[in-house]
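Write out the bound-state structure for magnesium ion.
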Amino acid sequence: MNPIFAVVGHPNKGKSSIVATLAQNDSVEISGQSGTTKECLQLDVEIGQASYSLIDTPGFQRPTRVLAWLQAQASTAEKRADAVRKFLSDEDCQQQFPDEVQLLTPIMNGAAIIYVVDGSRPYGQEYEAEMEILRWTGQASLALINPIENEEHVVEWQQALGQYFNVVKVFNAMQVDFEKQLSVLKSFSHIREDWKPAIEALVAAYKNRSNQRRQQTAELLSTLLVKACSYQLDQKVLTKDQALALQPAMELRYFKGLKALERSHHQSLKSLFSYNHLDSDIDDLPDGGNLFDTEKWILWGLNRKQLVAAAAMAGAAAGAIIDIGLAGHSLFLGVLGGGVIGATSAWFGADSLADFKLKGLPLGGVIAQQGPMQNRNFPYVLMGRFLHLEELLRLRTHAQRNSVQIGEGKLQEKISQLSAQQQKYLHKALSRISRQKTVDNLADTLLPLLPVEVD
Ligand SMILES: Nc1nc2c(ncn2[C@@H]2O[C@H](COP(=O)(O)OP(=O)(O)OP(=O)(O)O)[C@@H](O)[C@H]2O)c(=O)[nH]1
Ligand SMILES: [Mg+2]
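---
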């Protein structure tokens, strides 16, 4: 039998939140209203080849009366589990105590118990009946103190719970790190010896998945950077005037396309972290102005000084000067002879975002071309936004129901944590990408920007 856990407790103490967090499933119903979970919900969690189940349950409603009923059935300890079984099959009890029947059923079918209490509320005698009933089931159990508002009563809870449970942990459903989540599973490998191999396999699978996810995140970012930095639109028309008239519409379409590209990669990132119902709110990518100087965009990318340093590290300064020279030169070629005209911005030039070019075709006609993005801050901006979303997803839990606000990226901070060599590779890679040049193993270059969750 695979490990299976029933999460039980008083109503409204975060049982469903803990199930959502442990199962990494954001579709579990959570609400401030007491009695939200009315029926057991079993979630089968598959991590690679390993799996286990979590059962969300309704809260205890009348534990004192249920305990009294049980006590009337069993005079001695060895009869207690039988009394609970009798309770579950008794029709009167099913009518009178539907919640207790619901929550005790999976336990009597073999689920281990995770008992949840709120560490911001004082301990009280009313909980003793619940814990006593759970003890009567004879199942393996541990207790989690969820400090919903604060940790004010955690100590008294630890003392009380310690008398009923071998393992008591503080576990904040809203902000718990990955290690802590694993530690709950690991505890059960001591409490239920027969589950030990399965739990060890699960822990290994979790670590493996976390590493895989890190790799996939780097690959996703790499695709986004390459696709967005090489994104361009072409349209063939008859004359230069027609092409120029077309420009505003093409520019609009171009930025719409870029936004869609970014959005789809952000969406994939959310799926990678198993968020299927999460809205994220981020200001749109710029569709005008100057990526260096617009304060707003520097929040995600690099500022001018940082970009100059990046260029120096990438060893690209010399190349950039040649770029400017070429751009100026090509400007004079005009449409005649198949040359290129247009405003090509470069490292330190006037960094207009929209790069519009006209190419004369040898047999007549003109190709109007919007993009690719010339601005050298652009890959940094994309990267800053993506990495910020990644961090938010990694640090939140599936019990949170608020949407994600992507504000400030702190990209430079993340970059400065890399080694000098890694930084150099990164800047070189981004410099090549923004010139539409290929980069070998881009995902590997990006990988150090993503922290390792577990070792
Ligand atoms: N701030 C904070 N709020 C929490 C935490 N855990 C749960 N909550 C909130 O407490 C409320 C109840 O959470 P649920 O997970 O639905 O509780 P429950 O025990 O499943 O409730 P019932 O199904 O009604 O018995 C929700 O509004 C949660 O958002 C926490 O660790 N911190
Ligand atoms: Mg619930």
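---
The longest strand covers residues 41-47.
The longest helix spans residues 196-229.
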